[in-house]
């Protein structure tokens, strides 16, 4: 078997060859990394040049079979699984069933009796009407394990098949060995299985009449069944399924075991595909064995199963057992199956209750990374063309896949799985790095050679769009950030309006990281944040802004689909009016413009801007905005309502929605103090965050329990008679002053809201779907912002520990007094308050790279009362 390194590049390709592979996972030959995300430097695509010792050329113009996924079989007594896409389930007893029906009689009604402990779903002799059919014949824990699996992955493909029909249908009256008697056709039995599994919440993806139909082993449940018998069963089963609502269930025939994996099976697969190119092929069972070499197992599994099977048209690559004990059991009593050596499952469950992930787990798990859906419930990967050239082409085994998107406007994911088996010798198992180039659509990247198997992923437009550009979004930042979708290139672009460097830095880098090409236009150009001891710079007046907007229009930068504006950074009412005119112009050109408006007028009871800004903001900009992201103080300024309870928040949201015409509101931060009325209301509504917002990693000097930050997302419906949908989450407050938090949060809301909107609907008009889009975007933005703040606070504490500025020390002096004695101390304190944006790259990318796990905001039940 072999080693996998997974590199998932989440959409940072630029047209001029700036594609980046930023997410790399590895499993190495020496086990120093096991499905581990690396911190390797970014790998960029550049203009095509000299090739490496191996040259991988991906050709997405050549498309092969759709994949179903990688996985294994959940045997009756196996109770663990991995997050794979396909689950194979035996119907009734198998060679790995340790428990069954015990009886004391060998009479007709209980042929199992004391003879054997095998079971089917109908063990009543001669029950041709299947009146005694019951899935409850299986051990009860089988169904609890299945429920657990479906709770984790409700989209898993369930593939079912029996090792034997009921004993009374067979010659010899036993499930172990024998043949299906000529007078019986178990199509009705199989249909009832599909029907009852579906009724229990386990929809069947595919069914096979018989496992290993040429195997008649008398030591465990098996059945010999001819091809003509299977065909007759299939012909009877198909109309039963079709006429009862199961037309989508596939029927797979003649699944038989194989040997000599590199020999005749390959010829057979190719011969079958060439004869029946529209028929599907499934690789359904293989197993490792105890006592073998770890790295050679990795290489073998990757060569023959994870890479090899799809290259010979298989839609699945499945291992045998998901889980077994340390001796490869439990097994059917008396069976000679999987003995000397014992078969090894993907997971070994030890006697002390711990478990070990085996080499087959890492092989299939890394291969799965190339094909898992990018969107929840979306399409799975499809194999595409790839070749390997160069003087070391033999050292790499490669497969390539494309994963399409739920929304055809989104960029496809292109992945390659690469095994490096450039070993010095078969005894040392020390693969040497291979300097390889990867070519895709005319650009190229150089890999410095990894001693493992890797999966590399990039995002690009569909080849069907007749474009060869990679994905990039572009953003022009002016006083905030605006987003543009370039019609001719179909590439999201962003216009923005920012101020001094904190605003643009906090908003620009995260957007760039998420695939936006950002152009920054500062409406206030300061040397640094005004909180420093010294600062200087200039403001952009109305005439200058109008001039900038005019030039943007001439250069067609205003063909935009989204606008993010930190309006409060615009200096003065006149300049703010110019921004309102510009936003009105953009809305006239594009009625579906996504306009995210961050007020940035003040915080903590203090205004940052002149009083004359508020009327322009409230009367002109609010009605234009699609989403606004004010903090608690800015909500109070706009509504003149003090936020101290659910009633006051309800009144403020009603004012914003219905008095000011704002469709989507995200109140970024309402401070909730323990013991307050609002605290009791938040707790009663179940809005407190769970363990995902714990203080793990922070020092004890930070008390996260006495204050919370309540984030609220509220969406008005198209139908005004329907109350706005209100979601909220209260997260621990990380104390301290940090610059650029609101800018970061608003930029993330825009990016995730834009993505969610275009995944759900092609229009930005508010629907029930866009309500969930807002809460989803706010949840992701909140989770990422909180992670950045924690990282920044930890950095501040580390710096404090290295100086006399320890914030936990009991010192009688105030900050101002200490700053006056040591002027540079204020500079040091301000530096610790600048967000650790660059260092938080992985936190920002988590959702784009499919690694993100977020605690979603919760519906505020009863918010609007009766």
Walk me through this protein's architecture.
This protein is α/β, with parallel strands linked by helices. The chain folds into three domains: 20-66 and 395-424 and 435-459, Sandwich (Immunoglobulin-like); 69-98 and 118-370, Glycosidases (TIM Barrel), CATH 3.20.20; 474-487 and 496-759 and 768-787 and 854-859, UDP-N-acetylmuramoyl-L-alanine:D-glutamate ligase (3-Layer(aba) Sandwich). The strands form eight sheets. Strands 1, 3, 4, 6, 7, 20, 21, 22, 23, 24 and 25 form an eleven-stranded mixed sheet that branches. Strands 26, 27, 28, 29, 32, 33, 36, 37, 38, 39 and 40 form an eleven-stranded mixed sheet that branches. Strand 10, helix 2 and strand 11 form a beta-alpha-beta unit. Keywords: ATP-binding, Hydrolase, Kinase, Nucleotide-binding, Signal, Transferase. Its EC number is 2.7.1.35.
In the CATH hierarchy, the third-tier topology of the largest domain is known as: UDP-N-acetylmuramoyl-L-alanine:D-glutamate ligase
The number of helices is 19
DSSP strand tally: 40
Q: What oligomerization state is this entry in? A: single chain
Pairing-aware structural class of the strands and helices?
Answer: alpha/beta
Overall average pLDDT = 76
Please report the first level of CATH classification, the CATH class of the largest domain. Alpha Beta
């Amino acid at each position: 078997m072999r080693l996998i390194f997974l590199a998932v590049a989440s959409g940072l390709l630029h047209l001029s060859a700036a594609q980046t592979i930023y997410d790399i996972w590895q499993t190495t030959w020496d086990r120093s990394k096991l499905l581990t995300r690396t911190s390797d430097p970014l790998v960029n695509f550049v203009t095509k040049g000299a090739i490496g010792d191996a040259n991988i050329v991906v050709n997405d113009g050549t498309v092969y079979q759709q994949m179903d996924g990688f996985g294994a079989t959940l045997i009756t007594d196996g109770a663990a699984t991995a997050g794979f896409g396909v689950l194979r389930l035996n119907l009734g007893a198998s060679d790995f069933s340790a428990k069954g029906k015990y009886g004391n009689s060998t009479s007709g009604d209980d042929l199992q009796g004391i003879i054997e402990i095998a079971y089917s779903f109908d063990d009543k002799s001669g029950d041709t009407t299947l009146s005694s059919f019951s899935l409850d014949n299986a051990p009860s824990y089988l169904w609890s394990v299945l429920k657990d699996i479906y709770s984790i992955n409700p989209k898993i493909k369930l593939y079912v098949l029996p090792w034997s029909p009921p004993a009374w249908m067979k010659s010899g009256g036993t499930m172990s060995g024998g043949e299906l008697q000529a007078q019986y056709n178990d199509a009705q039995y199989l249909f009832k299985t599909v029907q009852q599994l579906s009724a229990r919440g386990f929809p069947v993806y595919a069914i096979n009449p018989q496992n290993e139909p040429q195997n008649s082993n008398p030591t465990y449940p098996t059945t010999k069944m001819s091809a003509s018998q299977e065909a007759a069963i299939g012909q009877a089963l198909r109309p039963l399924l079709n006429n009862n609502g199961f037309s989508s269930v596939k029927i797979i025939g003649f699944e038989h075991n194989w040997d000599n994996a590199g020999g005749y099976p390959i010829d057979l697969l190719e011969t079958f595909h060439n004869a029946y190119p529209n028929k599907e092929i499934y690789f359904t069972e293989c197993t490792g064995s105890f006592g073998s070499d770890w790295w050679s197992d990795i290489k073998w599994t990757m060569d023959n199963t994870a890479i090899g099977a799809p290259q010979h048209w298989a839609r699945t690559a499945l291992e045998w057992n998901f889980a077994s004990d340390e001796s490869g059991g439990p097994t059917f009593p008396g069976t000679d199956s999987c003995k000397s050596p014992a078969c090894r499952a993907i997971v070994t469950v030890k006697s002390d209750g711990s478990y070990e992930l085996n080499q087959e787990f890492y092989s299939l798990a890394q291969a799965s990374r190339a094909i898992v859906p990018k969107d929840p419930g979306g399409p799975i990967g499809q194999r595409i063309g790839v070749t390997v050239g160069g003087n070391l082409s033999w050292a790499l085994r490669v497969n390539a896949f494309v994963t399409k998107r739920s929304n055809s406007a989104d960029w496809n994911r292109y992945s390659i799985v690469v095994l490096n088996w450039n070993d010095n010798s078969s005894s040392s198992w020390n693969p040497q790095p291979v300097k390889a180039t990867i070519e895709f659509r005319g650009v190229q990247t150089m890999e410095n050679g990894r001693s493992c198997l890797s999966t590399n992923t990039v995002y690009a437009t569909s080849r069907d769009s007749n474009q060869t550009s990679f994905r990039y979004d572009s953003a022009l930042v002016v006083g905030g950030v605006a987003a543009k979708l370039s019609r001719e290139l179909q590439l999201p672009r962003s216009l923005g309006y920012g101020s001094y460097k904190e605003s643009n830095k906090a908003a620009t880098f995260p957007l760039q990281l998420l695939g936006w090409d950002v152009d920054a236009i500062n409406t206030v150009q300061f040397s640094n944040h005004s909180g420093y001891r010294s600062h200087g710079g200039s403001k952009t007046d109305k005439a200058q802004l109008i001039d900038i907007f005019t030039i943007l229009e001439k250069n067609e930068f205003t063909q935009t689909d989204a606008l993010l504006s930190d309006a409060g950074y615009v200096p003065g009412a006149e300049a703010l009016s110019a921004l309102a005119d510009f936003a009105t112009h953009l809305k006239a050109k594009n009625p579906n413009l996504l306009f995210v408006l961050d007020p940035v007028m003040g915080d903590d009871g203090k205004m940052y801007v002149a009083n004359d800004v508020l009327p322009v903001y409230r009367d002109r900009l609010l009605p234009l905005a699609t989403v606004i992201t004010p903090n608690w103080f800015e909500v109070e300024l706009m509504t003149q309502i003090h936020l101290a309870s659910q009633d006051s928040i309800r009144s403020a949201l009603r004012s914003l929605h219905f008095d000011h015409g704002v469709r989507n509101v995200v109140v970024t931060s309402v401070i909730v103090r323990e013991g307050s009325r609002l605290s009791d209301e938040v707790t009663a509504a179940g809005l407190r965050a769970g363990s995902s917002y714990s203080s793990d990693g922070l020092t004890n000097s930070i008390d996260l329990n006495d204050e919370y930050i309540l984030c609220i997302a509220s969406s008005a419906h198209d139908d005004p008679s329907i109350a706005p949908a209100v979601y909220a989450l209260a997260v621990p407050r990380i104390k301290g002053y940090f610059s650029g938090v609101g800018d970061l949060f608003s930029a993330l809301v825009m990016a995730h809201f834009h993505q969610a909107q275009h995944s759900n609907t092609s229009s930005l008009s508010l629907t029930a779907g866009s309500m969930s889009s807002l809460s989803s975007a706010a949840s992701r933005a909140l989770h990422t912002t909180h992670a950045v703040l924690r990282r920044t606070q930890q950095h501040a504490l580390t710096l404090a520990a290295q100086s006399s500025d320890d914030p936990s020390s009991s010192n009688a002096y105030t900050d101002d007094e200490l700053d006056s004695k040591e002027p540079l101390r204020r500079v040091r304190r301000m530096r610790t308050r600048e967000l650790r944006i660059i260092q938080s790259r992985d936190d920002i990318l988590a959702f784009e790279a499919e690694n993100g796990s977020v605690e979603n905001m919760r519906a505020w039940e009863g918010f609007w009362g009766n």
